[in-house]
Amino acid sequence: MSDYHLSRLMLVALAATVALLKQSPEVLAVDPQPTGLREMNSVASPTDSHPIAIVNARLIDGNGGAPLDDACVIVEGDTIVFVGPQSEATIPSTAERIDAAGKCLLPGLLDSHFHSRSSAKTLVEYELNNGVTAFRDPGHPFKFYHWLENSDTVIPRVFLTGGHLDAEPPAWPDQAVVIGTPQQATDAVNQHVDQGASAIKIYMRLPLSSIESACIAASGRKVPVTAHLELIDADDAIRAGVGGIEHITSFGTSLADPAHAREFKQAIIKDSEARRAWRPRLWQRINLDNNPRLEPLLNLLVQRQTFISPTLAVFEARANEKNATPEKVAAFDNMLQFFALCHQRGARIVVGSHTAAPFAAQGKAYLREVELMAQAGMQPLDIITAATKNNAIFLGAQDRLGTIEIGKQADLVLIDGDPTKTISEIDKVDRVMLGGIWVAGR
């Protein structure tokens, strides 16, 4: 059978599955806010019984409200026991006082999309030293993290999905669980959760029938499903139960002219690597003005409270820099514009670094990501909420992480600046606390 006929058959199968799914609006969706999910590694608790009182801080608690000046936060063990104005604090006489005058106190940052494979050093240099106290690796097999069991290096909280679910031929054979039937998708979800996965990642070739089965199984196990999409339209995946979308590019085929989307899919079906050249080709042709597909997609994102981890920094293109073509520059401009529309409409945004980005210094992809969010019109407080509270909800750990509140775990970052005025100030990390222990900074 020729490549052409194979491509046509696969597209016909995709269209048939989409039509069937759209006739079934009652398809189960994953619980949008699972909670109580756990990291794979153990975080040490303080051995010193003395409380820690952080005083005179400008408090940004992660909930999105105005900062509180002259604030005090008291930590006992690994738990926050007081949050409020300095004037209302009763500080134990045995407490270690940290004077945070002129500094901002934030919840530990979270990273929704970080790949580290087998490197504790990377986790320290790229994440912990930059105030990131928890991250999720979406899609790498558990074998890449077996070293966690024997490592004594202090690292952030590690949330895993296990290998991503893909179909033949997988784009990343060493990282994928290859799924051939919907039942295999169900089985893979259960196996992953049994091994500690706190989310499931689906990848570019998985058909809708298997996506639906994976989402139903994940819902039963109370974990979310997140997706990197190329061949399946994002709106169809969301209707099938997907709760998170990785990469702004995953929305391309939902927004593009249907003829352009078919052309894109035909190229990717034949060769997964073609996506790298075809993504900018597709996106630069997208017209967001008077686009009949835009409003329904935005409505769906808001209605379903789908998490968007855009990883904008990965796709950044600037005119006449780093071999950027006019096509890539125009494509990225459209990505930023669509992201801005998502935020303006109230879609749920989270921050993911994807480890590295073309216009970020080593270890600073997270910083570049938040800078681009600001460039697209997000206010600094909204970005901080996306990086903390929203990310904690996405990770299913909002019961204990993501905000500075009494009873939450003491993951904190002290900033020698004010990121509520300029988001780049978030890079001025003074100290980082993980589980009640100062682990990075001065």
Automatic annotation (TrEMBL):
InterPro entries: Amidohydro-rel (IPR006680), Metal-dep_hydrolase_composite (IPR011059), Metal_Hydrolase (IPR032466), Metallo-dep_Hydrolase (IPR051781). Residues 105-438 form the Amidohydrolase-related domain. Keywords: Signal. It comes from the Bacteria. Residues 1-29 form the signal peptide. GO terms for molecular function: hydrolase activity, acting on carbon-nitrogen (but not peptide) bonds. Pfam families: Amidohydro_1 (PF01979). SUPFAM superfamilies: Composite domain of metallo-dependent hydrolases, Metallo-dependent hydrolases. The keyword Signal applies. This is Imidazolonepropionase. The lineage of its organism: Bacteria, Pseudomonadati, Planctomycetota, Planctomycetia, Pirellulales.
